[in-house]
Amino acid sequence: MKKINPSIIIQAIVLSLILIWLSSCKARGVKKPEFVQLPTYRIESDRNREGDLDYVFDLDALPVITIEISSNDFNTILTNFDRNPYNKEYVRADFVFDKDGKIDRFNNIGFRLRGTRGSKFRVVTGSKFYNIEKVRFFNSHFRISFNTYVESGRFYRLRNLILKWHNQDPLYAREILCYDLFNRFGATASRASYARVYLRIKEDGNEIAYGVHAMIEPVDRSFLLSRYDDNMGHLWQCGYPADLTKNLRRGLVGMEDPERGFRPAYDFKTHSEERGVLFQDAKTELGNFVTNINLLEGDEFEDWITNNMDIDGFLRTYAINVLVGSWDDYWNNANNYYIYRDSSGKWYFIPWDYDNTLGTGFNWGGGQDFSTNDVFDWGRFGEPLMNKIMARPNLRKIYSDYLTLALDKSNDIFNYKSIKTRIKKWNAMINEYVDPSMVDTMPFSQNNSHKIEDAPFMDYDAGDINFKLLSGNETNNYIIRRINSIKKQLELQ
What we know:
This protein is α+β, with helices and mostly antiparallel strands. It folds into 2 domains: about 180 residues, no CATH class; about 180 residues, no CATH class. Helices cover about 35% and strands about 20% of the residues. The protein is built from 13 helices and 17 strands. Strands 2-3-4-7-9-11-10 form a 7-stranded mixed beta barrel. It has a 5-stranded mixed beta sheet with strand order 13-14-12-15-16. Strands 5-6-17 form a 3-stranded mixed beta sheet, with no helix packed on it. Helix 8 packs across helix 11.
């Protein structure tokens, strides 16, 4: 008889035990691991961080993003949205990024809808679940996570990516232009560019063309690391009524819980017990920051704010913010910004959400329009931080100097001719793919009717002026009116 190798017997026994264990796990319903251990899914280049961002957010290119998703996971998105429009639950999908023929594939992304106003997602006409013949699709916003299912997953150093349809901008340019202006001017802000977006159902290969979206870099730990070389601090996303007054009452400060429909005005984003970044510590520091803003006065306030906050960066940012007429901001509406306290204790301001700008927005302030509003009295609520800064001659001058610098034609920042040239170039690049023949989705508002128009978002009342960006003159072109008004205010004419 042939002698059996003992190692083969041992291997067979081990394999049998593993199979028995897996079977028992299935019977007991043991949860599978959340992460896919695939270290190859750190897609990076040999460039530095800024170079990787340049590659993804390239305003001279129109990459194609295809989300490959199973019909089952697609149906899960529909079910989750019907159950709770505010849910933030991801499903698995695969991500294909095609830029000028160079294709990067990232399997096992997290994929979900983003927002509620901009994400109706479907029209049911006979079928509740996926059926290409019976379901029509609305335009939608999406969010992609590269590290929900892949541990330490990165796509050109990005953890996450936002795809936002231009539901409040028929010109398909406002938000992208604003982020471009921030970055050109040296302010710390997200990068943004364009992408064509498709959903492909894995089982039948059907594709849903969602058209041209804004591709936006989220403010997350990857963002913090690339800007401050530090992501161990406290990041707060601030929404209305986050006015930085001393009334940090219960319910205004916390961590978002979509299942309860709870989103605090000051929403802590970087809580991690594993990393030792804790909500209670962050809440204490936020309280101290807000208390000092409200209680300190005069020289004491100026000394404190210049030593504890990047005030130069804040005023540089606000020069652009007021130039583009962002009414839904901190100063006017206690909304749409981040603040970050780094691990050394320094506070930073990060602007966010710039679709309602450049002539789109509400008319406020007793009949004033935002193309001529006072740059030193922009806000209607008298938020303490800006009002105290404007009361200090040294700080007011820094802000005024930044406005002057941005208006200087030689710097090519807030210059009508160069802005018009850039927008027309972008429009020419995307126009073919905005056309209804290239889009399978339906708009559900006046805007984004699958054609490019030089017009504002008309659901908002900006008074009697139908602002233009590419045409018109000093009576109805937002940029020309804003430049002329600020030059008069600063006595530059």
